[in-house]
Fold:
Amino acid sequence: MVAATTRKATAADAERVRAIARAAYAKYVARMGREPPPMLADFPALIAGGVVVVIDSAGVLCGYMAAWPEADIYLIDNLAVDPAQQGKGFGRLLVEHAIDEARRLKLPAVWLYTNVAMTENLAIYRRLGFAETHRAVEHSLHRVYMRLTL
Structure:
């Protein structure tokens, strides 16, 4: 694993975060028949809302996560790593950041969802200990919900 640090995203990070989202999710456009929501996210607003964390390695912004606490869970809404930086453990570090935040806030679980077409993500999240709770169609998106109980 490469050395990296996480920090709150700043307004100056918005374009890089958007570029990572577009690059990371591009392979799913054909599978889904549309751009996944993370490709269309309002990153300046998410960053201004204080819910985006970025991961930096040797001065390079390698990935990001939009996540926040809810009443009884910590929700990972959007997580991506630059395709050129994948396989180095950055995604795992972002998930660990979410787990740490959930524990700090005394929340019992971390939740996330992904699209059924994103089979690679499903496999990664299962390896990280997430279990599928249910599937639903929302806004014509076929979502798989997963939970990691702490």
About this structure: The mean pLDDT is 96. The first helix runs from residue 14 to 25. The longest strand covers residues 60-69.
